[in-house]
Amino acid sequence: MTAREFRRRLTRAQEFERKVTAELQIRGWLAEPFGQGQLSEQMRDVIKRVNTPVRYMPDIIAAKKFSARMRLVFIDAKDGDAHRETGNHDLETAALDAAEKWEAMSGCPFYYVFPDGRVATPKLVREISWPGTFRGVGSGTPFVLFRKAACERFDDTFGTRDPWTEVA
Predict the structure, then answer these.
(1) Which one of 102, 111, 113, 165 is at 20 to 30 Å from 159 when CA atoms are compared?
(2) Which domain holds residue 19?
(3) CATH code where residue 63 lies
(4) pTM (2 decimals)?
(5) Using one digit for the tens of pLDDT, what is the confidence trace for 101-133?
(6) CB-based burial, 114-136: b 16+ in 10 Å, e otherwise
(7) Smallest Cα–Cα separation from 88: which of 37, 129, 35?
């Protein structure tokens, strides 16, 4: 991937992260950017060259108070809507492994959010996925595929929009 392609993909990914953050905030969540998107291009380049799950840190940290308890979650906003023409979502195997480690280390839930408004957890992805087949386009890293329809709706996971926050 060229530097120009990477910048284009990064810009698109950051736009989607901002959209997901805004949707969480509309639903009463305190949501902020997190992860390597906050780092310089030079540091992101270093992280790509080192074998570490830090490369797959979540994009967003969010918290919301429910009755007497506070809920803290981590979110990876995946800006790719579907794997080619398969109609399925795809996820790098290394990203899935890192998310499971992140959940174990933090003790907090981890979610993937996709542009179609669907949400998946690492556990769900692990249970319903199958290995993807590399066809010469993309990074060539191992990945899994899973059905979009098996994922939850964003509103079912994070709540519906507060009508008072809707813009007229």
Answers:
(1) 102
(2) 3-81+93-122
(3) 3.40.1350
(4) 0.87
(5) 999 999 999 999 999 999 999 999 999 999 988
(6) beeebbbbbebbbeebeebeeee
(7) 129
